[in-house]
Amino acid sequence: MDLQLKGKTAFISGSTQGIGFAIARQLLQEGAAVIINGRTTQRMNDSIEKLQQEVPGARVKGIAADFSKAAEVIKLTAQLQDVDILVNNAGIFEPKPFGEITDEEWLRFFEVNVLSGVRLSRALLPGMLERNWGRIIFISSESGINIPEEMIHYGTTKTAQLSVSRGLAELTKGTGVTVNAILPGPTKSEGVEEFIKQVADSNQVTPEQAEQDFFKTMRPTSLLQRFADVTEVASLVTYVSSPLSSATNGTALRVDGGVVKMIL
Ligand code: NAD
């Protein structure tokens, strides 16, 4: 199937590793030009080199910016022109008892997980509407509808992304622009490997045991009963990025291994 992504330009926030990196690789494999993003130039350049090795002929560049710093985001958006596909992927997560999450942490989670996508969409949606084509994709989470008791602040930001996504889709009525959210389930990214290590340390078990316990106690409804690979999430994002997904708008699509027990 030709996903018709040649000639399109994508920007993916937080794409030096994990799900974002996998999305960048797949879009490049489909012939799109990709702008990746990370917090440091060094980290970003390493990822660009890796992508160029993995995808011969890849048209990839990077712009560094930290989404917890508004001034850096303003500088970033000023450099983004004619982006056809915006993937709002940057996100942070960390298990923490509710009583220990400070106001500062609540605000940091909101800024990185929600305002990142708000600021980028505010800058890029008008151009997409003017050109009558575009894709905005929010990488939310099953945690946005199954709020995890071990990180309520994270779940709250993931629910907020669903509202922003649906709201923005309303602004695309009758155009070739679509705005959708993707809800991954537990996925083996570098960030999640770190998360599992933290859970293992605090429960004083091995990471392998922590992983098994995770599906037994924290995500028992998973039908997959394993972490998804980052490429499994990227495949859905790549399809939604494509012109072929033109009738999919204003929705939240799950790639959650069946962890959410809902028919729709
Ligand atoms: P990860 O930690 O492996 O990667 C996150 C990326 O975001 C990294 O490249 C990191 O550098 C970047 N990032 C973090 N803070 C940033 C900041 N302040 N400014 C710029 N970039 C920043 O995580 P991942 O698992 O690949 O997660 C990617 C997205 O997928 C997140 O939004 C996450 O909430 C979502 N998600 C992940 C899972 C999962 O199980 N892995 C499940 C559901 C949703």
TrEMBL record:
Pfam family, one: adh_short
Gene3D superfamilies: NAD(P)-binding Rossmann-like Domain
Domain of life: Bacteria
Family matches, as InterPro entries: NAD(P)-bd_dom_sf, SDR, SDR_fam
CDD domains assigned to the protein according to its UniProt record, in alphabetical order: SDR_c
Family: Belongs to the short-chain dehydrogenases/reductases (SDR) family.
Full protein name: NAD(P)-dependent dehydrogenase (Short-subunit alcohol dehydrogenase family)
